[in-house]
Task: structure prediction
Amino acid sequence: MATKIITIDGPAGSGKTTVSKALAKRLDWIYVDTGALYRGVAYEVTRTGTDYNDDNALESLLATLALELVNEAGALRLLSSGRDITDLIRTPEISMLASAVSAKPRVRAALLDMQRSIATKTDAVFEGRDMGTVVFPGADYKFFLSADLATRAMRRHSEGSGQSLCEVEKDIAKRDKNDSEREQAPLKAADDAVLIDSTDLTVEEVVGRILQEIG
Result:
């Protein structure tokens, strides 16, 4: 029996993570945070002191990388060579580095097979920035979440990053620019994606709209 895939893309702070988790729970599907994989690469780049602009050094790191997403008591955890790094990849520094690292073709190729392999095994909600455009162009349902910059910054600030609201807003704006202008898989909505502006919507309202779309 073929598995079903829902992709939810969008910029930082658009609510895609919270919505994706809630949707997966309602459907009893698995939720896959693909951004965590790129953060995992960024973390290992930092930990090992790898120059990610050096193709050979990056290739060597990727050859030994062993990232794994595991479900523990309903929570998705990221392991690197068996070590849980979930709580180490959510810093502003790792976020910005993940944006830069994700622009590297070698990194995207390495993680592409991993993501598609997951999709062959179970129904899943994939959250990211290029899920509907590059990774799963044939997904059963595609959604693209957006929200205005001020709202997205407030959401991220409320998560307690330790930054001021102004700093968070500047970081998000910078990441928006980096993600949208990169040559490899830029952040954009798939042509056949359903667009949802979450600025004035609750999580439940967004999930409700998605459930209506997928019937």
